[in-house]
Amino acid sequence: MNIKIVSSGCYIPTKVIGNQDFGQFDFRDENGLPLKDNNERIAKKLQQITGIEERRYVENNLTTTDIGTIAAQRAIQNANIDPETLDYIIFAHNFGDIKHGTIQSDIVPSLAARVKHNLKIANPSCVAFDVLFGCPGWLQGVIQAYAFMNAGMAKRCLVIGAETLSRVIDLHDRDSMIYADGAGATVLERTHDGGGILSVESASHTLEEAFFIHFGKSYNPDLDKDTKYIKMYGRKIYEFALLNVPKAMKSCVDKSGIDIKRIKKVMIHQANEKMDEAIVKRFYELYDMEMPEYIMPMNIQKLGNSSVATLPTLYDMIINKELENHSFETGDIILFASVGAGMNINAFTYQI
């Protein structure tokens, strides 16, 4: 019995925010002092490092649950299944529903429960719960679904990754330019077909790294100190990721028994183009290989970093042949990997 992704769906917000749209922002440092560089130079540096040219934000009337529901509906429709047959709905996010113009996160009931309600699923045996695991949340949701199905506890699971980071960014912090909104969903099934998930890997580094990404006050000292925004220590994250993520990826591949040369694509969380390239390059160095051309699909240039949504969105785009120079064929071996707040790392190998 194999466990496969049988369908996917995503929601890409319609509001396009280019780097030039940050031109009038009042960026400060952590001490509240204005940055020395002008905003044009700041945006140029950001693009050189992260690859981000533009990102997507949700319209004011939408929440994380709303866009997660849309992605879920599309995945269910593409799978051509009755939603009543779902055993689990696993919703990965980090900040819940934050309505436009408010600052309070709403996670009761869970976002998974809300999606189940929106899908009008009556079956009480369809269990809905949320996963808060930083940016690797969707991937961890897939690993949990895999574990449930391997244990005989489920035959079909819906895993959603959605986030509206535009609602939790500090507009006085240049790091806010990285973040974006989006949603992706996948349906997984136990099947007798070939392929599927071959191996998994997860880790949480919390002794010294737990607060590398955290909630903190605005860099504008005139704003309420009790209102919190997403913050990160970029250099520490970069160094941590380069040291630990390639090793986790290698461990996952080695567990699968697959020859490294058979990997067709490395699907890595769209966090930062330069960092992702460095991670994948170092991963191949562990096998005394150079990083192959076209091995690492990227959509961060146009979609930014939408946290848990980056991987399922990227997968859906490739499945639908919407990403130049990238495609999947039956039998291809794919390596998924992610890193984020926690600090958490995970990966799984997958055969199309």
Automatic annotation (TrEMBL):
Name the InterPro entries for this protein: ACP_syn_III_C (IPR013747), ACP_syn_III_N (IPR013751), Thiolase-like (IPR016039)
All copies of the Beta-ketoacyl-[acyl-carrier-protein] synthase III N-terminal domain together span 129-203
Q: Which CDD domains match?
A: KAS_III
Q: Beta-ketoacyl-[acyl-carrier-protein] synthase III C-terminal domain location, by residue?
A: 254-351
GO terms for MF: 3-oxoacyl-[acyl-carrier-protein] synthase activity
Report any Pfam family annotated for this entry: ACP_syn_III_C
Q: Write the record's keywords in alphabetical order, separated by commas.
A: Acyltransferase, Transferase
Query: What is an annotated GO biological process for this record, any one?
Result: fatty acid biosynthetic process
Keyword Chaperone among record annotations? no
Task: State if Acyltransferase is listed as a keyword.
Answer: yes
Tell me the PANTHER family matching this sequence. 3-OXOACYL-[ACYL-CARRIER-PROTEIN] SYNTHASE 3, BETA-KETOACYL-[ACYL-CARRIER-PROTEIN] SYNTHASE III
Name assigned to this protein? 3-oxoacyl-[acyl-carrier-protein] synthase-3
What is the organism field in this record?
Myroides phaeus
